[in-house]
Amino acid sequence: MLHEYLTPHSRSATPSIHKGVTVPVAAPPTVPVQPRRAGSVPLRHVVPNLFRDPARTLVELGERSQGEVVKLSLGAFRPYLITRPEHLQRVLREKSDNYVRAGDGLQWRPLKRLFGDGILSDGDYWKNSRHVLQPLFTARRVDSLVDRLAEAIEEVVDELDEPARAGQPVDMGTVQARIVCSAIMRVFFADKISVPQAMRIMEAQDAIAWSVMPRLLVPWAPLAMPMPGDRAFRQAVQLIDDTVLPIVRAARGTAETDGDDIIATLWRGRTEAGGRLDERQVRDDTVSMVATTTETTISVLTWLWPHIAQDEQIAERLYEEIDRVVGDAPVRREHLRELRYTRQVLDELLRLYPIGWLFPRRALEADVIGGVRIEAGATLVVSPLITHRMSAFWDRPEVFDPDRFDPEQVRNRHRYAHFPFGGGPHQCIGMHLFYLEAMLIVATLLSRFRFRLERQALPGIKVAAALRPLQRVEVTLQPVRSVSA
Ligand code: HEM
């Protein structure tokens, strides 16, 4: 039991839980005059489980910490686990200058071999890329693109009529990949990357997500030490470069006169100091943007189908809202603000499956969090997967319940109890895009079809660079008109 490793002070700090009500997070413990040392959790007991069932093991670590800052200890590598919303706010926002992403820390180090130095790094590279890319993803700009996204989504959804008529099962992971790639490549990449190329890149990303796992779970292993998955990782990065680099180079010549797709914007963009991004950084940012604009939405939505198959009432409320708001018209921008329950369902999916499930930080200078001394150079583990499933902050955390996101409950909850998009200066630039695109996809699919899952049980979580279901999600589709006829 972890209690053995926690101080009496930390044990008394657990907030109370009221059934059926979102738990307002208790005020942080007052900071003692003398910062104390963190309680320690020896990881040697949990490492085997970390490989067998990473999601459950991580959540158990959070439960055991009871929201206190604890040290996860395995030999020389001893990161702090930060789970309490107030502590997360300090790390991600209030003291973000002190807690850096550090491209060579924990999860970032293995992934740096793919994403290089750009928007997913830190320091000047990150600042320059963020400055150039952010204007493409403001709420106003994304809003203005909704109808174009909707048309692209509709075209792919049309292709489902045939398997629906034939009663043939479809794999929702693949269907969503085609929908997202078609819409994003057309609207954000001006078709410079074709859909088949994007699908190939996604396959390579999938291989990377999987092959990088041993390094994510054993982050103290030096890169020079061979590990399982290394070869597959290298091959996949090569495939991505072989696809992306020629496209990036070809786009350079026309960037000044092209529209504002991502690659032209990267070439044309000016940093705050007035400089340009070089070819390596345009490559790094293009690869980062292909990954973040695709895998994220696809992974989260794949969980929708097993959950609505499990809970008929939730499915009915979703169908009712979409039938009422959209009917049999094509989904358009004006529908989206009416789809309130659909948005709550998405928020609940993001609570249980926050695909950015781990984003560590490194402390530049010593600090005190929740009364615990953090030394300069320490690594901090920040994981929405853990915080979102802790009973200290959520009532019945394992239950899928979109009502947690009705406005009243959201108002009473700490902003960092639900933080699937991070926070502070590194907050996800794609948040608004995600909500609009995901609502368009769900509303388009559900206004056309009813879904029957081939396999009823909720799949386990495949923890890799994202959080995908362990088993394929296969469904048969029934056209809505034939249901209501
Ligand atoms: C389910 C949807 C998504 C989730 C859960 C998600 C999650 C996150 C999280 C947690 C971060 C912060 C990482 C950190 O603080 O170290 C982040 C950053 C980022 N996300 Fe997303 N994301 C999603 C969708 C998207 C989309 C659609 C885009 C496309 C534009 C995107 C682009 C980015 C970028 C470029 C960053 C880096 C921002 C920076 O460091 O300045 N994400 N995302």
TrEMBL record:
Q: Which GO terms describe its molecular function?
A: heme binding; iron ion binding; monooxygenase activity; oxidoreductase activity, acting on paired donors, with incorporation or reduction of molecular oxygen
- Residues annotated as binding heme: C428
Keywords from the UniProt entry: Heme, Iron, Metal-binding, Monooxygenase, Oxidoreductase
Task: List, alphabetically, the InterPro entries matched.
Answer: Cyt_P450, Cyt_P450_CS, Cyt_P450_E_grp-I, Cyt_P450_sf, Cytochrome_P450_Monoox
Q: Which domain of life is it from?
A: Bacteria
* Similarity section: Belongs to the cytochrome P450 family.
Please state what the protein is called. Cytochrome P450
Question: Which source organism does the UniProt entry give?
Answer: Micromonospora cremea
